């Protein structure tokens, strides 16, 4: 099927329109970026988000396992290395642990999951299951929330520096790294999705996958917000 530029433009517009459902609008993030969260609420968010961070490489490994395209795999595998690092002391998961320490948590309490609330576990697990069980292109499409992430990351970095001065600034390196990693990742993911989703049905399923992922992120924050209510 041949796609015209207009078809592609309207598909990209439908994907981008999902930004209206992105978690930058969630009341918990709005309060975070306005400096209205307590130290306990920040710690609860960091400890619970650790479960998301540690599951991202498992989600990406599921996409690799289901993907028959060598070129895509060759590039996708970098995401796993970005998060896991290639040796101890490196990678995004390590950086998140340092963020936790910077806000006053210990590594042990993040790793053993003692603060993990059921709704966060359920939402994160559903994202990993989605990547394992749905067609790999849909799983790639679900990662496209990263198209919307950089503005939120930049806002969050500024908010931490301005409003939560008790955070050790070195702990914010994770957010800085994502400012460049997220656009690279989402650019590749968008290229894959545009290349593989040609029919209206495939395009609809890609938009639905992205919508599902917005639900995952929203539910993570709902669960954290409820567990750490004022
Ligand atoms: O803090 C955030 O707002 C945020 C959002 C997202 C996202 O939009 O999915 C990711 C991340 N962070 C992130 O740190 C990250 O590593 C990441 C990987 C993915 C993905 O779906 O593959 N999303 C995100």
TrEMBL record:
Known pathway: Cofactor biosynthesis; pyrroloquinoline quinone biosynthesis; Cofactor biosynthesis; thiamine diphosphate biosynthesis
Stored Pfam families: TENA_THI-4
Domain Thiaminase-2/PQQC, chain residue ranges per copy: 14-222
Name of the protein in question: Pyrroloquinoline-quinone synthase
Top-level EC class: oxidoreductase
Record keywords: Oxidoreductase, PQQ biosynthesis
Catalysed reactions, as listed in the record: 6-(2-amino-2-carboxyethyl)-7,8-dioxo-1,2,3,4,7,8-hexahydroquinoline-2,4-dicarboxylate + 3 O2 = pyrroloquinoline quinone + 2 H2O2 + 2 H2O + H(+)
NCBIfam families per UniProt: PQQ_syn_pqqC
Signal peptide residue numbers: none
GO biological process: pyrroloquinoline quinone biosynthetic process
Role according to the record: Ring cyclization and eight-electron oxidation of 3a-(2-amino-2-carboxyethyl)-4,5-dioxo-4,5,6,7,8,9-hexahydroquinoline-7,9-dicarboxylic-acid to PQQ.
Gene Ontology MF annotations: pyrroloquinoline-quinone synthase activity
Superkingdom of origin organism: Bacteria
SUPFAM superfamilies: Heme oxygenase-like
Family: Belongs to the PqqC family.
EC assignment: 1.3.3.11
Coiled-coil spans in chain: none
């Amino acid at each position: 099927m041949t796609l015209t530029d207009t078809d592609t433009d309207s598909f990209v517009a439908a994907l981008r329109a999902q930004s209206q459902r992105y978690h930058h609008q969630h009341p918990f993030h709005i309060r975070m970026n306005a400096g209205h969260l307590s130290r306990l609420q920040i710690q609860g968010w960091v400890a619970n988000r650790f479960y998301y961070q540690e599951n991202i490489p498992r989600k990406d490994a599921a996409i690799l396992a289901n993907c028959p395209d060598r070129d895509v795999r060759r590039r996708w595998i970098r995401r796993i290395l970005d998060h896991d690092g290639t040796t101890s002391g490196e990678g995004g998961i390590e950086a998140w642990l340092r963020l936790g320490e910077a806000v006053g948590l210990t590594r042990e309490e993040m790793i053993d999951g003692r603060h993990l609330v059921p709704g966060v576990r359920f939402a994160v697990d559903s994202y990993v299951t989605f990547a394992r069980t749905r067609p790999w292109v849909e799983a790639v499409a679900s990662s496209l929330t990263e198209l919307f992430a950089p503005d939120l990351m930049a806002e969050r970095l500024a908010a931490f520096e301005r409003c939560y001065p008790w955070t050790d600034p070195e702990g914010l390196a994770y957010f800085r790294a994502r400012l460049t990693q997220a656009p690279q990742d989402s650019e590749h993911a968008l290229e894959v999705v545009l290349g593989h989703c040609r029919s209206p049905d495939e395009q609809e399923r890609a938009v639905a996958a992205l919508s599902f992922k917005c639900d995952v992120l929203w539910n993570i924050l709902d669960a954290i917000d409820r567990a750490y209510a004022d």
